[in-house]
Design a protein that fits this description.
The protein has helices at 14-34, 40-54, 56-82, 89-106, 112-132, 134-137, 139-143, 148-153, 158-163, 172-177, 186-197, 201-210, 215-229, 239-249, 252-275, 281-284, 290-316, 319-345, 348-365, 370-377, 398-412, 421-435, and strands spanning 230-231, 233-234. It has 437 residues and is mainly α.
């Protein structure tokens, strides 16, 4: 029964993470088994709580980023409005410098939120893999399939029967590349376990009907799996499957139990979305570009669709995955309330002040004078407007433009190396002084 389990994720990134998380899940199930409640549903809930607590530092950073982003967005939008329609190199460079100054002022990175999500995504996907393939990561659950699997493989025609099961298609390559004659290997055992782990009640009955001598083994395996999977309903089955069986048996309590998973998933997801930091879109839309407005509208639509999509997925997927989604949404909601209170108590002005000092020191090391950086940090981008005189300026000839560029370049590079940060700082400073007069 030992060896590499085929159901473990083979990916170079997800695989090792899933294996590590599998050890945590196995440890939780081992403790539950020792205290007499070996239940997969309870293990999933405890597992979810543990994992979200481990991800808490990243969650706090992400929410802090969202809070600061909502505060600095008006300044970023003012900069974009200031340079709207100006595509010349000088204006683009000035806009980039001012934008960087705002990000430095608030102590955040434009890619900060993306980096945190990129770190979390492999972990969340690995969580899904562990829960979807529990026998691959929890030895106690895998043991429930024995001695049935060994005895089933020894039966003539068992391969053809297993291949006829609804979930056998995803393992068709395993069947075609491996001969089941001449000895039992862990490869073969795990292929059978993969299919049996997702078999329907009707498919389990077909094993007993095809091989009556295995009836006792089938009953023993099903008894253990039912004990492990019983959480009001069998969490190995999808709510849709439970719903059909309940309607056939006219069991209205089971109908309610089956519907509870997708309904609770949608409700908890909706609460989770509502607790997330929201931008003041009515105020921001005045300064936002058409592209930004489209993005905000798309985000709003996605937030509305998430609970509905969650309900649909949880209705068709095994209830164990739905239980994980519900537990995850509840944990995130509790975290969100705590984090929101923590962030609300923060003195953002003090945070910004500290970030300004850090930005000055960092830029000073790069060769920019502190007083020039102070000018960037204290820019009042909300009240900046383009001078109306610019629209009345007569068109310059090419010779006049070349001469102006030469003089500007000499000014920019005064007391600084050409192309250095200091020369760029001179450029932005002159541009601001000219347009704020």
């Amino acid at each position: 029964m030992t060896g590499i389990l085929l159901t473990k994720d083979p990916g170079r990134i997800i695989g090792p993470i899933a294996s590590l998380l599998g050890y945590i899940m196995e440890g939780i199930f081992f403790v539950l088994d020792k205290i007499g409640i070996p239940n997969i549903g309870l293990a999933i809930i405890l597992f979810t709580i543990v994992m979200y607590l481990l991800l808490l530092p990243l969650t706090i950073k992400q929410q802090k980023f969202s809070k600061l982003s909502a505060k600095m967005n008006p300044e970023l939008q003012a900069i974009q409005a200031k340079y709207k329609g100006k595509n010349d190199n000088e204006s683009m460079m000035a806009m980039n410098m001012e934008t960087k100054a705002v990000y430095a002022k608030y102590g955040v990175s434009p890619s900060g939120s993306c980096v945190q999500l990129l770190i979390q995504l492999p972990i969340l996907w690995a969580l899904y893999r562990v829960i979807y393939n529990m026998p691959a990561y929890v030895g106690k659950i895998k043991e429930a399939f024995f001695p049935l699997v060994d005895n089933l493989i020894a039966q003539k025609g068992s391969t053809e029967l297993i291949q006829s099961f609804s979930q056998a298609g995803m393992y068709s390559k395993n069947f075609s590349n491996e001969s089941f004659v001449g000895g039992v290997t862990s490869y073969v055992e795990n292929t059978f376990i993969d299919v049996l782990n997702k078999a329907t009640s009707a498919e389990w009955i077909s094993i007993k009907e095809t091989f009556p001598n295995l009836t006792a083994d089938v009953d023993k395996t099903l008894s253990l799996l039912n004990q492990y999977n019983n959480f009001g309903i069998n969490i190995a089955n999808s709510p849709s499957f439970t719903m059909k069986a309940a309607l056939a048996d006219k069991s209205f309590l089971m109908v309610i139990a089956a519907l509870s998973i997708p309904v609770l998933s949608a409700v908890t997801q909706w609460i989770n979305v509502k607790l997330m930091p929201q931008q003041n879109t009515q105020q921001d839309n005045k300064n936002a570009s058409d592209q930004q407005n489209a993005m905000m509208q798309s985000m709003k639509t996605m937030n509305m669709m998430m609970p509905i999509m969650s309900a649909v997925f949880c209705y068709t997927l095994p209830a164990g995955l739905g239980l994980y989604w519900i537990a995850g949404a509840v944990v995130r909601s509790v975290q969100q309330v705590v984090i929101n209170k923590h962030i609300d108590k923060m003195d953002l002005d003090e945070v910004i002040k500290n970030n300004e000092e850090k930005a000055k020191k960092k830029m000073a090391k790069a060769g920019v004078r502190a007083e020039q950086m102070a000018a960037y940090a204290n820019m009042n981008t909300k009240n900046v407007s383009t001078s109306k005189k610019q629209s009345n300026t007569p068109t310059m000839t090419q010779e006049e433009k070349d001469e102006a560029v030469r003089k500007s370049t000499e000014y920019y590079n005064k007391n600084a190396k050409p192309g250095s940060m200091m020369s760029k700082a001179n450029m932005v400073k002159q541009y601001n002084e000219k347009n704020n007069k």
